[in-house]
Fold:
Amino acid sequence: MPGVIEKLRYVRLGTSNPAAMTDFVTRIVGLQQIEAPEGLAMFRSDDRDPSMIVYRNDADEQGIALQVRDPATLDAVSERLEAGGYKVATGSAAEAAARRCRSFAWFRTRGGTRIELLVRPRDSGWRYFGSRDAGITEFFGVTFASTDPEADIRLWVDVLGGKVADYIGEGAYIALDDQHHRITILPSGRDSLLEIQFKVEGLHQLMQNKYFLDSAQVGIVHGPGRRPASGEAFLSFRGPDGVLFGFVAEGDVRPFEESRLPRQFAHAPASFCAWGSAANIPEYCG
Structure:
């Protein structure tokens, strides 16, 4: 079922301290807070309405949402998920309204991350206006820490219709569209959403953000650097609740339909950064 996922839509972060997360994603990351239903905080980074949702949850729950084309595609994906052993639930009309979509279904991965599949999520006709000039152009991608990368790669490729762009050790970069990758899966001793990435206009904005983060005393965990596989310039930094955030710029673009043999990169520091920046979290150290 190639090309099932049309677009990444949003990240959902359940946190014991929504105020701290809201402060971080506006003051530090630069997202735009928008009107939201009671109990939720919503943020924009582009035309998605929203691209991040924050709510109170003492278990620090994590989730992402993916857009599918229509109800028939949602039904087909749900059947494939259930055949693969995943328990799929359908969201209520009230839940769909809170997510600003027509309908959705959801399931949980092995580590408990909730993945929602949306039909007709809402876009905004108004220009995104960030809380600071971070140069953000879009919600770009996510990285998962995985205790079973092989199983997670099968989920994203065989069930959700992605494509392995390249392998890095036992992990992989997964393409969903013409970008080199939107999803990264890395071997780890835990199962969780590891990093949320936003694209910025270019290398100039990436370096501006680096110095802004230094001045705000935010811990940079990797970068500035450039990924050998994708050509992306990147900067990863620590947010609340152990969640990492990242800015990326540039990077390879090729037609999703193009047939190209994925390359195998070693699980080593040089495979994570062509400039030699050192990481201080296990998943990026090789």
Observations:
- The mean pLDDT is 95.
- The first strand starts at residue 7 and ends at 15.
